[in-house]
Amino acid sequence: MSSSLEKMSIYFKKRYVMYFITTIVVFCVPFIQINGNQIFLLSFDHKQLHLLGVSFDMQELYMMPFLLILMFLFIFFITTLAGRVWCGWACPQTIFRVIYRDLIETKLLKLRKRRENKQIEPDMSLGINKLKKAIALFIWVVLSFLAASNFMWYFVPPADFFAYLKEPLEHEYLLIFLIGIAIFLIADIVWIKENFCIYMCPYSRVQSVLYDNDTIMTVYDYKRGGAVFDPKGIKMWKKPEIANAECTGCEACVKICPTHIDIRKGMQLECINCLECADACTKVMGKLGKETLISWTSPQSIDTRDKVKYFRFKTVAYLVVMLIAFVGLVFMGSGKENMLLNINRDQGSLYTIRDNKNVENAYIFLVQNTNQEAYKFYFEIENENIKIKRPLKPFKVEPGEKSKQVVVLYTDTNLSQEDKKDTAIPIKIRAYALDSKEKIEVERTSVFIYPPKEVMDKK
Ligand code: SF4
Ligand code: SF4
């Protein structure tokens, strides 16, 4: 095998291996649990975010801005570095189109004649082709429901998902989303096709502003192949008319392109970076014992014949800012508490003075068990003069549930420091789970209000 053909098989195999790995990973991730939590789950049902096996309650979503910043920075970074690498190598739209068009329609059903020519649509006037189209559609409908279910598992845990499906009428929203996503996938992959990438995908709209001359993309080597289009984008020749131009004019790169463009015209918004054209040209040029004219490199590298500049100001700057956002995320994540406690003072009177001169303050404690098991919770006051009047016993909270407790604290010690003004005594409350193997506890501060001396003297 010549070196060019070896290169072709490397591109080709890498792309399909990547599609396979991406599909397996996306499909399996919702089933992988760490400490009973998914790797990623945004559950509106349970009001929880699972991230790398850590569960965050909606009240703890202070991490969300860091996550979003990190996600956008990564998109900016990867687009500046490698253009539409996502579109060609991992986007579900591309993978699904390859499965439907190249695997089902072409390889399995022979509805399309050749994978290498995507310009020729099947002759649908033939009865046999109508039957094949119906079979292709049926297979894709089944796969669409599977893909839609897979998508839903990132929002509804698989165990809940299958349980809800047994009672579909009681979970109509799940059903609406599932059927809606499946219908979209069927329409998108069978009828909208690559028009989604060209006209509808928001990512393709924003990415061109992130490109620079060093961004890696699918590039035609006009220096070796010869310029086929003039600066206005008008095609100058079909067969080479320039001396030493290596392009044969075979247009194998054009015929194979799923978005029906001619990459020899230069970078175009429609290019999804699938590198099908590069493979096609490698095959053609390989037979002539030459290197491909279309490769995955940067325009600057084609112009100067230098190596691609991966590390430049823009990419390094994105890396630095991403690192800062990541440190912020880890810092915020490490502050996660393994139970939640909100303390509000009772909205009624500040205090109650009993006949025995005991002073009471009332509070509302909202305790949330953010763990996977039910625990009994109780609390203590870190102030020797303040004691608990109610509740006198620990209370049980189910996993993920909240418990509202009316708490009454009292003191039998005279704590007033002012004749005419109330005294606010800072108190520290330590709440904890009694029956957990690991330490589950939080600390909060509040105040205990004690009446003025003159009020107490009258009692
Ligand atoms: S496949 Fe290569 S040789 Fe053929 S037209 Fe395209 S760039 Fe030219
Ligand atoms: S020009 Fe090449 S890389 Fe771009 S979409 Fe067409 S075949 Fe894919």
From TrEMBL:
InterPro entries: 4Fe4S_Fe-S-bd, 4Fe4S_Fe_S_CS, Cyt_c_oxidase_cbb3_FixG, Electron_Trans/Redox, FixG_C, Ig-like_fold. The chain crosses the membrane at residues 16-41, 61-87, 134-153, 173-192, 315-335. GO terms for molecular function: 4 iron, 4 sulfur cluster binding; metal ion binding. It comes from the Bacteria. Residues 238-266 form the 4Fe-4S ferredoxin-type domain. This is Cytochrome c oxidase accessory protein CcoG. The lineage of its organism: Bacteria, Pseudomonadati, Campylobacterota, Epsilonproteobacteria, Campylobacterales. PANTHER family: FERREDOXIN-TYPE PROTEIN NAPH.
